[in-house]
Amino acid sequence: MHTILVVDDEPNYRLILSELIGDEGYRVLTAEGADQAMNIIRESDLDLVITDMRMPGRDGMDLLRDIKKLNPDLPVIMVTAFGDVDKAVTAMQAGAYSYLTKPFNNDELLVNIGKAVEHYQLLKENYRLKKEVSGRYSFANMIGKNRRMQEIYNLIEKVAPTDTSVLITGESGTGKELVARAIHFNSPRRDGPIISINCAGLPEQLLESELFGHEKGAFTGANALRKGRFELADGGTIFLDEIGEMPMTLQPKLLRVLQEKTFERVGGSQTLRADVRIVAATNRNLKEEVSRGNFREDLFYRLNVLNIHLPPLRERRDDIPLLVDHFIGKFAERLNMPELKITHEALRELTSRDWEGNIRELENTIERAAILCNNNSIEVEDVTGGEERGREREETAVVSDDILGSFSGRLPDILDTIEKKLIEAALKEANNIQAHAAEKLGITKSLLQYKMKKYRIAKKSA
To answer: Is the pLDDT of residue 136 over 70?
Structure first.
């Protein structure tokens, strides 16, 4: 139940307002002046203050200033006499939510109350969401309130202080490198380097050189001695991404580093030591790769002392709103769009999708939508338009000249009319099964529902 404070020096007026507001389901507190009001505000969890402008002693403007010092977001509706309109404008400039001029009708008051309370709830929800993102739902730049993500955070906290090798598994785009960095920066090695290398991105000879370094003249183009990633990571952590792609010929050398902490540079004979913690990641099933002969069993068990498996985004849909909020904040700052927001319909569309590319795909979608959206508002069309749906269209929609000739007027109105007719026709042909109609139109079911609501197309039973 939302709580509203009514401040007025006239007892009868306080009583009338209290009964009117209370009948709408609000809890009502009253105060006869600014000082009493401030005592209540300090002790109560309020959603709105309604105060008269003129009161003996400290007036409504004094109260407004004190409220804004204590809680800048708490909405205040000023009630003024007709001759106090100039003061009311000043109050708006000082942070009042709105003002009403006596006499006003009850409906006008209740509409203003409803809007003010809803506005305050949105502010509090956004504040809560941001605290969650930066607080207990965030761990070393990872975001998630999902139970499985909370278990992963606990696992990271337990394994990070050790030197145990960790194997991170999960689909592409699930945030495996973020986990590796979380392990490093929560470990005693945090002051040392964390060095990353993608084992899938380099040919065999170059990968060996990148990992272990090479001596001058070791091969064509080796014009100088070069330290490898293991040397550079000494005292810190090395992150071996896509470890399942490492060639079999290099795996014994990596196994030796794990077992003995020693290696030689390519073309060299001097044995070097590496005080390095190894964290590896893969989107492959390494047990299956071992059974196929593509990965050494002994290396697998050395790497897989502790396994952290990251769930795909489709299995943690409750985290999508948090991630969307995080990315909107990120791109709002990067693109200088401080008012950037997303509609409920667009957020619902994002939450319903499977995200084969996981968090990376979601981030790219938000970035593209932020660039393409109008009026700083990301709509459904911004997060669905221009994407490949995994299949080629076999049919192309054609609008005949006869159909076009039957319309006249402004282009947006014409397009809306055509779109509405196409949706109605698709629903009729699909026997009002929305999923089938959406497929025929080449859009998602959620987008179809959004369009139906927009054009006031009634839902019918199949």
So the answer is: no
**pTM for this prediction:** 0.56
Sequential DSSP letters for 339-387: T-EE-HHHHHHHHHS--TTHHHHHHHHHHHHHHH-BTTEE-HHHHHTT-
Whether cis (ω within 30° of 0) applies to the bond prior to 103 is: yes
What confidence tens digit (pLDDT) does each residue in 330-376 have? 999 999 999 999 999 999 999 999 999 999 999 999 999 999 899 89
What's residue 448's pLDDT?
81
Phi-psi region at 375: left, alpha or beta (left = phi > 0; alpha = psi -120 to 50) = left
State the Cα–Cα distance between residues 278 and 300, nearest whole angstrom: 13
Element housing 80 (H / E): strand 76-80
Cα 72 off chain centre by: 26
Q: What is the DSSP string of 135-192?
A: TTTEETTEE--SHHHHHHHHHHHHHTTS---EEEE--TTS-HHHHHHHHHHTSTTTTS
Which domains are present in the chain? 3-132 (3.40.50.2300), 157-310 (3.40.50.300), 314-384 (1.10.8.60), 401-454 (1.10.10)
Closest CA to 208 of 248, 161, 166: 248
In this structure, is the dihedral angle defined by the CA atoms of residues 17, 18, 24 and 26, taken in order, positive or negative? positive
